[in-house]
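User: Please predict structures.

Assistant: First:
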Amino acid sequence: MAEIHTTASGVEKFDHIYCLGYQVNHEDWSPFKRVNYLRQTFLDRSYDVDVDRLRLVTEAYKKHEKESKKLQCAYAFENILLNTKLYIYPEDLILGEIAAPAKAAPIYPEFSVDWIIDEILHSPFEERAHDQFYIRNDEERKEIVELCRYWQGKTVEDIINSRLEEEQTKGSQLGKKIFQTNVYHYAGVGHLAIDYGKLMKVGYNGLINEAKEKLNKLDKKDPYYGDKRDFYNALIIMHEAAKKYILRYANLSEEYASKEENLVRKQELEQMAKNCYEIAGEPPKTFWQALQLFNIATTLIQIEGNGHSISYGRMDQWLYEFYEKDINEKRITKEFALELLEVQYVKMNNPTKLKDKGTVVVRNGRGFGGESLTIGGVDRDGNDVTNDLTILMLEASAHTRMMNPWVCVRMHENTPYELKVKTVECIRAGYGHPKIFNDTSAIKAMLRKGMTLEEARDYCVVGCVEPDLPGKEYGWHDAAYVNTAKMMEMVVNGGRCLDCGPHCMRWAKCGALGKQLGPNTGSLETYKSFEEVLESVDKQFAYWTDQMCSSMNIIDLAHRERKPLPYVSAFYEDCIESGKDLTEGGAKYNGIGPQASGIATCADSLATIKQLMFDEKRFTGKELLQAIKDNWVGHEKLYALVNSSKVHHYGNDDDYADDLFKFMFECYCCHIRGRKTTRGGEFSPGVYSVNANVGMGLFTNASLDGRKVGEAISDNMGPVHTDGGSHDISGPTAIVNSVAKVDHSLASNGTLLNLRFPQEAVAGIEGRDNLISFIEEYISKKGMHVQFNIMSSATMRAAQKKPELYKDMLVRVAGYSAYFVELGKPLQKDLIQRTELHF
């Protein structure tokens, strides 16, 4: 591919080398003393639970019990913003938290409280094996329980539990965990990107005036007059409260400045106060003010709705006009712009979310989660849009090296060479950022969701890998995790869970073992042909996706009924135009995106069945079934064979196995896409597990890919790796060729590919160029997403032995990065077992 160059530049040379992998006892990475201080201060703080939001929201709901739910939400939001304690931290340049101190989790009782009460009383957050949270004292512990009891019977979860039937719950996290909806069952939805560009143009006053204009034009002949009236009034109350909240920060910053003796810091505080005064209602005028408004607006979305993955859109695009103007007018230097970005990056890690113990088994990590920042790509006309901020945002990432933001680089056939090099130098530094998205496949996926070409080209990334249209799409991405390996268990055993017998103490207390769970579509003891096996897969997937999708629609309606979102709805033009809240279908595009896990586990299981049972006839179906019922005990030769290269495996550019992966991929997608949502949109399939493959594996019996009970199922789009060995043995090019045999755009909610290279594999200029060429090849073959861990198994094992030396070592888990030493042992094991690749 010919090299295409850009005039965009950062502070450093585009080919500046940061380092190769994580360095123990490293020096500070940022050139800015302030940033290194803020970063270390963050790392030194504990993760706490804060009661402030819980007190204020409960107080407001008690006071306004007779109001509509929209107005109750508005008054609660107002009460929080006018009364929550504010924080200004030393050296900080950007103001705004989530109604809690930095790194402390507020409580959102509107969604669910039973698990909070139960865990405080019986499974304290601070006693978890990982993802611990700390409550300050016993008085606050008692207060949280008392306040939460008021909410019992009034939450989103309460409605959901009353409306789901046994057939839906038996396969969910409440039953056998064939699919898990607990992300939105117990918490907010999020997973959206607002139109930051519009906010920067009109400010809060502009949004309020739009709502007032629509309110004044409402016709009482409209049968939805009352709903629309409450929506506009709630929106106005909440955005007026946002203005007052910003002014509270302005006043506090002035107060700090009046007491500050250091002249430089005094001037900073005065400027921070001025920034807040100017953006309280009006649009920002400067780069610094734009970042300040961005931070306030984003944290208020989190205060309102609890949902994670509040993504930042195409930040190098909507922020660029402020940067360009300030640079041209010599108001700031490029170095100060970079420092501001780095301060903001560190601050993005402050929001923290308390999750139930079931969720943290599936997904480790204590950050709020999902804060993707998209850079690069093409504009609505198809032209490359790389600019200075594109490069600066990568430099800021390399200098801060924290969990957030999740930097996403959009690439295409005309991506400039300098951006490719800068991206790869960040990847080689070994902190798990950035991840790479292919415009060709992602845009095609957006077109499948019914968007115009111009809209599709403007996609950003929400959460881990989900393509989303800012300010237009409320996609309920990441809506459920589907354990396809558990569905395969139904296929091989007549719609029943396997009884692992005396070898499996893990399942000894499970009353459902051996009982009918799904439809009896045949078993390995009855199938006469491989075609019958594939037909059974299709029938099981049809049944279980029916249960899951119908459950998701019930959950969706529960959110609409109990927790509308007027504040964030204002950032969606279609919501203001129609008078409909996001939860009512006010956005232009209204999807639900569940994602499949374990596709390769299923594909390799099918390969075992096809090859050993039907093609070679070396084993009967009864023998294969007994082997996994026995957890492979007493079947050691078969276990070794299944985990060897003598059996076809996905990930080796082997059509025999890859065609089965393609079948599984397409089977899942076809059973999801096109289903209708309650908000007038359609379901959108994703094929990624994040790290849920580890938690799902804990509750999954042995499988014919060579897994034993409790081992992780395959992750995302990746090949199988079991305790018996990795199934991909032919190198990275073979993996790419296997992955590229499916049409990624069919998974319009995203796909995810993890790859791991040890440091020495990408060392030197040759290693860098090899990685660039590899990425170019992947893009040309139309894979949608790829991300890298540059880390050896030896490094991770060293971190397990001496965690105190590796406290800030980030690893790419899946769609997100996390501190390795904070992860649970099963997830650490899964990361270590991923195949080390070499060119």
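Second:
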Amino acid sequence: MKTLNRRTGMPNCFLFALILGAFALAVVVDAQDPSGFISIDCGISEDSSYTDETTGIHYISDAAFIDTGVSRTISPEFNTGSLQQQFLNVRSFPEGPRNCYTLRPANGTGSKYLIRAWFMYGNYDNQNNPPTFDLHFGVDFWDTISLLDTASIGWTEIIHVLSSDYVYLCLLDKQLGTPFISAIELRPLNNSVYETTDGSLVMFDRLDYGSTPSELASTSNRFKDDPYDRIWNPTPNSLMSNPSKIRNLSTMNSVTSNTFKVPLAVMSTATTSQNGSESLNLKWGPPINSSDQYYVYLHFAEVEVLQPNQSREFDVFINGISLFNEPIVPDYNWTHTLATNSPVPFPEFGIAINKTKNSTLPPIINAMEIYIARPITQLQTDDIDVSAILGIKSTYGVKRNWQGDPCAPEAFLWVGLTCSNNDGFNPPRITSLNLSSNELIGEISPNISNLMVIQSLDLSNNKLTGQVPSFLSQLAYLTVLKLKGNNFTGSVPESLLEKSKNGLLLLSIDATLATENTNHQNKVVIPVVASVTALFGLFIAIGFVLWIIEKRKRVVRKQKEGSFDVRNREFTYSEVMSITNNFERIIGKGGFGTVYHGYVGDSQVAVKMLSSSSFQGYKEFQTEAKLLMSVHHKSLTSLVGYCNEGTHMGIIYEYMANGDLEKHLSDKNQNVLSWEERLQIATDAAQGLEYLHHGCKPPIIHRDVKSTNILLNEKFQAKLADFGLSRVFTTESGTHVSTIVAGTPGYLDPEYFSSNRLTEKSDVYSFGIVILELITGQPATSKSPGKTHIIQWVSSMLANGDVKSIVDPKLEEDYDVNSAWKVVELAMACASRASTRRPTMNNVVMELKECLATEVARHESDQSDDSIRMIPMNSESGVSPMAR
């Protein structure tokens, strides 16, 4: 955590006065908040808001974001009149081990934010004893808050890519005083800055080299000068070993910035080595936590107009490791950023900037940012479940301490909930909800219908009214339902009673409800019995007519059997021979037979001929032909025609010039698919599966998704192929089909294999394996003697926390790291052993599209902004400075 007098060696009151002076002298900006800013003053009344005079940013009350804590005011002796309004009040949390704010920014999952929390104790509780407590962001540790004294103002920042639409900021009581907070600020960032492989970044230092504390006090170094509203600190001489001379070189009126957007006030000043010496050395002592690792961002800009006989170039070393093979030459009026792209362990942290032999001027530095890598160890609860449980909480006004993430960390699991395990790869899901004896009033909340994997629901002994809703019977995994002790009216839905009768649901209801069902059934039976005699003759007549019609239909169907569908062209066997030039060119083989290349007119086609000895047989062959006739999508192979002449049966479909995906991922392939191409292929194939699952009525399960069944055309557009094992979900099928297990080892859903219960999530599992193949370039099952499955291998690599060890080395790290992490997490979610933890194909398509957009934006950014360089931290770095 940062405090205003950290590392300065100055008295608290002196630096505090400087900061207040900066606020007082800052130019008041337009009160309109920038897009996406969230600024919360904690402790002010619910209907209060105001615009900060120094930044022009609008602050609102925290009352809408938390339902615990008490509002308090700091002691009058600290309210000097020049203190910012955010520090006059606090929200204090004297009760409960964890108290949480729940925020939902406009840009949710996948967006990057800088989040800042402010603290000023100000002796609000008259104890003269600032507390120590922990701060969590999401479900992981953020920082420990421990102020120096009653007058100190402290803050901590974290940079985080949201894994959910919900943001939780939680204060945890360590029994070292009552936790409190003064203000919370969220600032959206460009997703291309502050890239990490470790989840979040906690600020360690952000330094403006060249400006003294008094100079910073006379300028505004926050918004709007800094569009990200960062706080830049003056640099004390104690951090330099020489010590260095501070030179105020602000002769420029602008500095062209890169995407880091470091403000002019920071970049127009620089620090150089004392007396023009050859080295500028920056040092820090050992970190508080020896296991911490750091990301470093160095910002350079030439601040002097050099004469023809002058030059400035230097080398940069971190802990003795050279970052480049060539010297750095800063440009005038242009910001260049050097960034480590992987965390660096610093037992004792030292940066040396050394003048080269060819340089006539000493080295400089304008600004530096250092962040502690904060790995994400747990996932937040699935957003759908969060929305549902928050809706239930709001509907019934639940009084329990339901705050923060419902399921994580496990120590703070919401009372009354049971959740699936948080394994780090799949978001936890709510599996049980117990609201028995909670004085619930009203009807059963429709939000319960969104708890899709709930297994047990206890609403007994409340004051619930209305009818028992039928949506309860649609909760596929619900096995226990307790409704006794309420004031329900009407009858229980027949679908619930049927599930109970079949032993699929343990249903507990009041006797009055059971009676209602009996009476309802009797009321229905009496008029039916009374009218049976009168209508019996009519039914017989109607039945006879229907029997005649159906018999004729069967005759017609039998006559048409083998012709599949008259809408598609039927080819004779002699025509097929002509199309394939007497089966001249073989382009594939399988259990069904052989695939040949051919032409229909000027169009290339593939002709799949069924072998008489085919193991798969006629049934699978016919299934594929009929399915291709009925479905049409850009990501599914298109049917051209068929042959069904005697023992000669064949399917003719569009030719895919680049073959199957497996071939392109093989080590034998010389043309390596780029990361963008892999994401595009995954997205194309996912859209094909999404169409089968959600665009077809009834839905279709492919049942054999694998890399050899994903074909690529001449533009490398991916299409799903081979529908011989596909199954259609009829209306009567419900949520699964019981069937003999079929598929390909390595891609086969383990849950389907053990239960014979085929669902859409079986395809999702197989597709997860395909995504892992695209990421790693490795086959589903290793060809080594041990036959390690790709999931086992990726899981072992994930334990090391380095995505680069997972991604195909043939890509040579040419990919967006955040995008890679997201795709790995998506693939592992798809390949979860439990189908309830797998996303739907709708969600898969959305996630892949976001990752693809990030990669496309990265390429566009690389083409338009070459002033940011990512530095691999190892002694064999081959990264060179760009040409100037």
